[in-house]
Please model this.
Amino acid sequence: MTQSHSRSRGKRAQALAEMAVMVPFLVIGMMGMLDLGRAFYYQIALTNAVREAARFGAAPFYTGITPSCNPIPPASSPGPNCLVPGDDDIKIRLAQELTNTGFLVDPANITIAPTQQARVTSCGTSGGCQYPISVTATYKFSFITPIISNLIGDANGQLTLSTSALFRTEY
Model:
């Protein structure tokens, strides 16, 4: 009886030692998968926000009878009665779409092409102007898991998420 009792104790000790070795790897792997899931979520949210901002920039901003645009420059905005949405309005729309996602994109990391001045000058009050408008945004995603940030991230442990959308204008 003493031999079988010591064998089962040995098996339990071996199982405990194996588990002690494997648990840290399992926890790090699980945390890494959660981190990658967060990165995919941020990429999808950013893509949807950029798409919505580009759609907003392509649609007529004002549909009144007599639209008028402020000349740019000197005005920094085309004004509330212009068909062409201003860059600031497009950036605000992108920020609204990211509300409650857990992150915001710095407006300096949002690029809109063609420029607001080119859009106002060529299409301000003419109507019937159809050309592509592009909105691009980048975001530096920070990992929580150190090993994943070293494997996938840059020197600072961050992953640059970038996306763009291209729509044809309707003004």
Observations:
- Strands lie at 110-113, 132-142, 158-168.
- The mean pLDDT is 87.
- The helical segments are 2-58, 87-97, 116-123, 146-152.
